[in-house]
């Protein structure tokens, strides 16, 4: 018996020693046993450790402070009261601190929690937050009851400046973060600090510092995370789209100058990495050179899938990484990072850092557009890149692979591709979303577009013809409740119109199709919105209609694409992992989607900014869907004949998108 207990103690000691490593761990709760969790490292070699919280079950993680997780164990709802059971848990030491039951009103809900100081401090306090911070609810560790006091806000001189909390001034944007001994919070777009004046008094102080403005050019749906990173306070902005806004469209990070109190965008961070889970409201960061984790990335999970994503901060690409192939949780994963002050210094540190493939001598510099254009019987994938300290556009041939580069005009360095057609790119500024240009990378032609003075975010853009076409060019954009348009040859400003949708139409973030003199937009329910124009007395009149008959052809619309082929409209839908994919053709008579299993000699090229078809002239390229994803140096395609993914530079086939990378600002051209 004693030997068995000794083995258990020794095993727990090894687990605690492993978890005490300075890098973050992704925690995957077990759906069959809620008291057990698997801790997974993302360093090489990958490790997984199973821990058990036999004394309680984790319902929700409310926060992460000083190496402790603040856990909601159970919620008991009664007609007149709501009981919340909260505990502190340290996975490294396995210590648990149970706090007294918290009694709330039935309409109250705890959104986040934070420790104002480590639990070892004699005056350590746990602070919990509702969505609107009307009062401070806190508990000193060891107390038998929670304390509630008004959340008065003071100025720098500690005078009360706001004692009327509301949605407009006290909405908690994200999880509070401990930074340089203080607790910082973001409320209604403003940065504030919470200070513990004495054991029984907590004050909210204004810093007169607004958060960076949201980028509303592509979506009105965002998530924000406040995080301390290598001695700097940072905020992470996540732009969301797709079905139920679960798809990450972009990630931006801003760092705060603690002297000037001004934010600046972090465009490169090789010395650190960031981590968040979409279902949690906190983020963490760690130094790259000490942890064995590759720097310059944001690692995140989305929903309850088993995918670990990484976002490259420099080139704005998203890769799918899955070091946990044998684990398929149906519960929400979360991140844990040990407190660096409790981690013992090691003489040898694993510095396994995966580096990007060197591009310098291995890749050709494309100097002339003629060579690229004349050699190809199919489009190329194009995306922004940075190499040798210069801003470049990179082109990849889906058949031959390899990278060909072209300098980006200085005036377009901070521009994103919004639509691609007939060799022309419609581009909008990442800094000033109202600025737009047409750009032809082959001819190096730039055509200015009148600036947009519209306030609404456009999910997608399209244009009817080349901007140099004698027949004219109409540019359109669509958002949640409006659409905008511009006749390039006539209009000096954009037109914006409210849509009278019946039934309601929610557009996806995929590009429209211009077909039979009309723009077709794909909705999240699988239906179609149609916008067309006619001229009357030198005036352009618009017509908007919703085709109700087409409905969702499948359950997986994480990513969807619309295109025209052989005089018909097709839709391609695929889940984030690529395991559920379908191709659907719109029946013109019944106006219903019908699944097709073969597209003959046609090639489908799909991306959020450009989707179209071509007849294959190169043997072996037909009956395939080409995605804006790269594996190694090759473009990834899906073969309808084999129902497998592949690339022309490799004989290996795959059943999903594992180990692929997608550049968010990319297009077929």
How many individual helices?
Answer: 4
Report how far apart the termini are: 71 Å
Radius of gyration: 27 Å
Q: Which runs of at least 5 residues are low in confidence (pLDDT < 50)?
A: 1-14, 343-375
What does this structure look like?
By secondary structure, the protein is mainly beta. It is built from four helices and 56 strands. Strands 23, 24, 25, 26, 27, 49, 50, 51, 52, 53, 54 and 55 form a twelve-stranded mixed β-sheet that branches. A six-stranded mixed β-sheet has the order 14-13-18-17-16-15, with no helix packed on it. Strands 4, 5, 6, 7 and 8 form a five-stranded antiparallel β-sheet that branches. Strand 26 and strand 27 (317-321) form a beta hairpin. It starts with a helix and ends with a strand.
Features of the shown structure:
single chain, about 675 residues, mainly beta, globular
Secondary structure blueprint with pairings:
Blueprint: H1 2-19, E1 25-29, E2 36-40, E3 48-52, E4 60-65, E5 68-77, E6 82-90, E7 95-98, E8 102-104, E9 112-115, E10 125-129, E11 135-140, E12 147-150, E13 153-154, E14 160-162, H2 167-170, E15 177-179, E16 182-187, E17 190-198, E18 201-210, E19 222-229, E20 232-241, E21 247-257, E22 262-265, E23 272-277, E24 283-287, H3 288-291, E25 297-301, E26 308-312, E27 317-321, E28 334-336, E29 364-365, H4 369-375, E30 381-387, E31 390-397, E32 401-407, E33 415-421, E34 424-429, E35 436-440, E36 445-449, E37 460-463, E38 474-478, E39 482-487, E40 495-498, E41 513-515, E42 518-522, E43 528-536, E44 539-547, E45 559-565, E46 568-574, E47 581-586, E48 593-596, E49 602-605, E50 612-615, E51 624-631, E52 634-639, E53 644-647, E54 650-654, E55 661-663, E56 666-668
Parallel strand pairs: 13-18, 23-25, 29-32, 49-51
Antiparallel strand pairs: 1-2, 1-28, 2-3, 4-5, 5-6, 6-7, 6-8, 9-10, 10-11, 11-12, 13-14, 15-16, 16-17, 17-18, 19-20, 20-21, 21-22, 23-24, 25-26, 26-27, 27-55, 30-31, 30-56, 31-32, 33-34, 34-35, 35-36, 37-38, 38-39, 39-40, 41-42, 42-43, 43-44, 45-46, 46-47, 47-48, 49-50, 51-52, 51-55, 52-53, ...
